[in-house]
Amino acid sequence: MDRLIIEGGRPLKGGVEISGAKNAALPAMAASLLTGGWHCLERIPRLRDINTIKRIMSKLGTVFREENSHVLEINSDNLTCFEAPYELVKTMRASILLLGPLLARYGRAKISLPGGCAIGARPVNLHLKALVAMGADIYLDHGYINARADRLKGAEIFFDIPTVTGTENIMMAAVTARGRTILKNSANEPEVVDLANALRSMGAHIEGDGTDTIVVEGVRDLKPCNHRIIPDRIEAGTFMIGAAITGGEVRVEGCVPGHLTSLMEKLKLAGARIDPAEKSLTVTGPGQIESVDLMTMPYPGFPTDLQAQFMALMAVARGSSMIRETIFENRFIHVSELRRMGADIEINGNQALIKGKKRLFSAPVMATDLRASASLVLAGLVAEGGRTEVHRIYHLDRGYEAIEKKFRGLGASIWREKE
Ligand code: EPZ
């Protein structure tokens, strides 16, 4: 396992190029199972999770060609297996995204039921309920989802909760189902819209993506996907918060400012200056960070995936702030590690009260989940008194491409060491 070593106290300066979005690349790769031929996906980030889904799809019989490090060609003409095994699924819950496409194309799938993870139970009941409504037979057996469907039929689906991967799974299941599928209370995250665009490049008939009602008209045939993945708004947001917390000035390049409106509003309230352009934005950190309350919400509300990073900022703000996490039941794991660096944070249920401190102190800390790890790196960039060591950074490598190289390019003193 690797660790990151960070020497704090250096304002971030300069430009950073944002990679493709992990949470758009994963569903687009799963969508390539829907039809034969060579699919081409551009701006694929080089991440552990991308390697994991490639390993699972290779096990099914999918073949990959890498034109260059960010262009991926995929061919699933000759699938020989329809099972996603526990030992791989347990490392990446998003494997559930293989269920919809496998059922749609082959009428069968055996996917390990994704277990919980550090941030919560993460059930997939809404995915399964919707597929049953579309005519699938599904039974759980020894920790596996066993699914069968002669041909899925269109249905009217209402999601009790706007689930991102649930919406994506059902959209993929519906594109070749017989008739019309209406997804109500669907998620409207940019990653859902990006998957709809990828599916439309394959000939799918989808409308309403980006709203809470999506309509899919089933078609008989699809053609291979040709699509460029959107930039990663969570990576972009992480660097924006990095500029604010270090009092630096960072130009975040190759991002979509419109995907980051809620964060921009909160950073302005915290005293940062934001200068958005068409495909980039510049964040100038304030001399004094002001405390700001926030509540995580489905898009376009404040993203839960930036909650831990924003909390690191509030840990060194003037005054107290309240952060409420409404999406996941256990997404404050970073708090105990931030406390070890001197942060003053009290948790009460799904709310955290952060009393800003003048400074944080370097310490050895443990990464526990992807975004909690990012918050520890941000805290390390401003911690005083030596070197912060962030252990078990494989969590970071799941969702951030070359994170220490990108921060070093902005002037941070940060490097990777073998444990
Ligand atoms: C996606 O997870 C993202 N992952 C998460 O990013 C992100 O935090 C989350 O959406 C919320 O935005 C991918 O896209 C691969 P949900 P997902 O289904 O789809 C409950 C990261 O760091 N729920 O929208 O799993 C669920 O428990 C990751 O990149 C059910 O109850 O999240 C949660 O409380 C972390 N039953 C809420 O809905 C279901 O069947 C929203 O979850 C499905 C979800």
Task: Bin the helical content.
Answer: 25-40%
Whole-angstrom Rg: 21 Å
**How many H/I helical runs?**
14
Major sheet attributes: 4 strands, mixed
For the record, the count of structural domains works out to 2
Assess the beta-strand content as a share of residues.
Answer: 25-35%
**What global shape is seen?**
elongated
Low-confidence stretches: none
Kindly name the structural category. Answer: alpha/beta
How do the strands line up in the largest sheet?
22-23-1-24
CATH topology label of the largest domain: UDP-n-acetylglucosamine1-carboxyvinyl-transferase, Chain
Mean pLDDT: 96
CATH architecture title of the largest domain = Alpha-beta prism
End-to-end C-alpha gap: 5 Å
Number of strands: 24
User: What is the CATH H-level superfamily of the largest domain?
Assistant: Enolpyruvate transferase domain
Catalogue the ligands: ligand EPZ
Question: Mind sketching the topology for me?
Answer:
Elements: E1 2-7, E2 13-17, H1 22-31, E3 38-42, H2 48-60, E4 63-68, E5 71-75, E6 83-84, H3 86-89, H4 99-106, E7 108-112, H5 125-133, E8 137-141, E9 144-148, E10 156-158, H6 164-174, E11 180-184, H7 190-200, E12 205-207, E13 213-217, E14 226-228, H8 233-246, E15 249-253, H9 261-269, E16 273-276, E17 280-284, E18 294-295, H10 307-314, E19 320-324, H11 333-340, E20 344-348, E21 351-355, E22 364-366, H12 370-382, E23 387-391, H13 394-399, H14 403-408, E24 413-418
Parallel strand pairs: 2-15, 3-14, 6-7, 10-11, 18-19, 22-23
Antiparallel strand pairs: 1-23, 1-24, 3-5, 4-5, 7-9, 8-9, 11-13, 12-13, 15-17, 16-17, 19-21, 20-21
Helix pairs in contact: 1-2, 1-7, 4-6, 5-6, 6-7, 8-10, 8-12, 10-12, 11-12
The chain binds ligand EPZ.
Residues 22-23, 26, 94, 120, 122-127, 161, 163-166, 187, 191, 304-305, 327-328, 370-371, 399 line the site of ligand EPZ.
